[in-house]
Design a protein that fits this description.
It is a single chain. This protein is elongated. The termini are far apart. The chain is built from three helices and no strands. By secondary structure, the protein is an all-alpha fold.
Length: 75
């Protein structure tokens, strides 16, 4: 597969925030953009939706505390 380079302009703060998000997802800008392009071509539509669902981790922590409290009460 022959590769080509692409240069884009973007607001500095947006780039930093995007890189932070990608770091949390374990990705970099190049990988994320390639995913976006491949998915767009495959589905013939935009955009590729990648999200971090922090609500799930909050819910998991609450359930863990609930489980620990229940174990204490049942002793």
């Amino acid at each position: 597969m022959e590769k080509t380079n692409l240069t884009i302009s973007l607001d500095k703060k947006d780039k930093e925030m995007f890189q932070d998000l990608l770091n949390k997802l374990g990705l970099n800008i190049s990988v994320a953009f390639n995913m976006f392009v491949k998915q767009s071509i495959r589905n013939n539509s935009l955009p590729l939706d990648l999200t971090l669902n922090e609500l799930d981790s909050v819910s998991d922590r609450i359930m863990d505390k609930y489980d620990m409290a229940f174990e204490e009460l049942s002793k």
